[in-house]
Design brief:
This protein is mostly helical. The protein folds into 3 domains: 194 residues, Up-down Bundle (Growth Hormone, Chain: A), CATH 1.20.1250.20; 57 residues; 237 residues, MFS general substrate transporter like domains (Growth Hormone, Chain: A), CATH 1.20.1250. The radius of gyration is 23 Å and the shape is globular. Helix 6 runs antiparallel to helix 8, helix 9 runs antiparallel to helix 15 and helix 14 runs antiparallel to helix 17. 77% of the residues lie in helices and 0% in strands. The protein has 20 helices and no strands.
Length: 495
């Protein structure tokens, strides 16, 4: 690592954090503007979701390849290529005239944005000495955890007050600042001439694409009731199995699968995926509850969720000091418990709760997110060699994205099925002999009564479904706690 001043190090943190925030923000900000895009493109509900799917799939394909790309191109050159590519793709998304154009440009946006998070981790670990890495990671992690929370807030404001195209145009100034700072402050790393594992790359693309589309489209297609979803699952199993065997036997695999023999790294990846599945899954369905059942406007719903990100950022600011006195595993356990408690309180709510209750629950979960993310990132890399940081960062970030996809997919399925079950259960209580109807003088032969009851049953069935989902996530967090004992504290590998 070249010698550099303290000021330059912290400017590098700002540069890579800007790039990281852009990628994560863009993956969440779009969802809240989909209804407006439907009107612009004349698309159906099923068609418009390809705007999200295309980004998720292209990003998931490239992310595990981050280490390979860093070694082939160098970290500085790769970062500049990604930011410039992301900027151009964002501008193209803003001027897209049709759904097919938007999907194509979102694919490019995902390709260039995928490596920004693992690349940022790699640059930070090559910039800071071991004794300062926790502080640097805490500051950088503010963007990682705050961006997906603030995304709906910013998206809601832009949607309500400007035009959906501005969710892409706002990237321009931040990308330009990041490009200038990267050119000026970030040093280049050595380029390695690595043999390209074409078969491994092909198998990786096939397996990741089939898995992500399977997860993203499975619920809307009825899972294995759909032949296309079934074929995607079979394709994933076959291609991934061959990829594993090929990677273990190949002399120069595109991804070093032997990294998973490191217990800290493999346990950290698993815990990050499970944690992301839970907390990001909750973040994805909470706006649906507030907007669809509680009639919150999109901008107000985003505002209610914003304190979660602020609390997360504040908690991360205290991590370097806390870690001097509290074991990392204790911090991780505390983070899980905070999130479990917050999600449990969400499972006790009703449709008439004061918005401030959501705010306080969000703060509780935000603190948990802050306590979890930085220590788990530290323990994931603490026993790895510096030469493995690039590949490890790509796999680690992929685990977070995969967990997010699984969590959203499972919770969406749970909501759909529980809603049907609850609706049927509530509907079964509607009969002329129900004393409640007589108490309120309601006549089932009156069309107004039928309309009122249908509305109430639909609302209450939906509410119970969300509470069931929150119960499930709470249980998942509690079951995660024993995994903390798989992590072992160690000394940071000297660079």
């Amino acid at each position: 690592m070249p010698e550099m001043t303290e000021t330059r190090r912290w400017l590098i943190v700002i540069a890579v954090m800007l790039a990281t925030i852009l990628e994560i923000l863009d993956s969440t900000i779009v969802s809240i503007s989909l209804p407006q895009m439907m009107g612009s493109f004349g698309a159906t509900t099923d068609e418009i979701t390809w705007i999200l799917t295309s980004y998720i799939v292209s990003s998931a394909i490239i992310m595990p390849l981050s280490g390979f790309l860093i070694n082939r191109l160098g970290s500085k050159k790769l970062l500049l290529i990604n930011i410039i590519g992301f900027l151009i793709a964002s501008m193209l998304c803003g001027i897209a005239a049709s759904l097919s154009e938007m999907v194509l440009f979102r694919i490019f946006q995902g390709i260039f944005g995928a490596s920004l998070v693992p690349l940022s981790q790699f640059i930070l670990r090559n910039t800071f000495p071991p004794e300062q890495i926790m502080k640097a990671m805490a500051i950088w992690a503010v963007g990682i955890m705050a961006a997906p929370v603030l995304g709906p807030t910013l998206g809601g404001y832009i949607t309500e007050n400007l035009n959906w195209r501005w969710i892409f145009y706002v990237n321009l100034p931040f990308c330009l600042i990041a490009i200038v700072m990267c050119l000026k402050f970030i040093p280049e790393t050595a380029i390695q001439k690595i043999k390209i594992d074409r078969l491994g790359i092909f198998l990786l693309i096939v397996s990741v694409t089939s898995l992500q589309i399977f997860l993203d489209r499975g619920n809307s297609a009825g899972w294995f009731e759909s032949n296309s979803i079934l074929y995607l699952f079979i394709l994933f199993i076959l291609s991934f199995t061959i990829f594993i065997f090929h990677g273990l036997k190949s002399a120069d695999p595109v991804i070093n699968l032997k990294l998973f023999s490191n217990r800290n790294f493999s346990a950290s990846c698993l815990m990050l995926a499970l944690f992301a599945a839970g907390i990001i899954g909750v973040l994805s369905i909470q706006p649906l509850m507030m907007e669809n059942l509680m009639n919150y406007p999109p901008d107000f719903a985003g505002l209610v969720m914003a304190p979660r990100g602020i609390a997360s950022a504040i908690a991360m600011g205290f991590i370097p000091k806390l870690s001097r006195h509290i074991n990392d595993r204790t911090l991780i356990s505390s983070g899980i418990i905070f999130c479990a408690a917050g999600t449990y309180f969400m499972s006790l709510l009703n449709l008439y709760v004061d918005p401030m209750v959501f705010v306080w629950i969000g703060i509780l979960q935000g603190i948990g997110m802050g306590l979890f993310f930085v220590p788990i990132s530290k323990l994931a890399f603490i026993t790895l060699l510096p030469k493995d940081f690039g590949e490890a960062a790509g796999i680690f970030s992929f685990g977070r994205n995969l967990g997010t996809s699984i969590g959203i997919s499972l919770l969406s399925t749970l909501l759909t099925r529980e809603n049907q079950i609850n609706w049927n259960a509530l509907h079964a209580n509607i009969s002329p002999f129900n004393p409640t109807l007589a108490y309120y003088h309601l006549d089932l032969h009156n069309p107004v009564t039928l309309k009122l009851l249908t509305h109430q049953i639909t609302q209450q069935a939906g509410a119970i479904s969300f509470l069931d989902a929150y119960h499930a996530v709470t249980l998942a967090f509690i079951l995660m706690l024993p995994l903390v004992f798989l992590l072992s504290p160690g000394k940071l590998t000297q660079q």
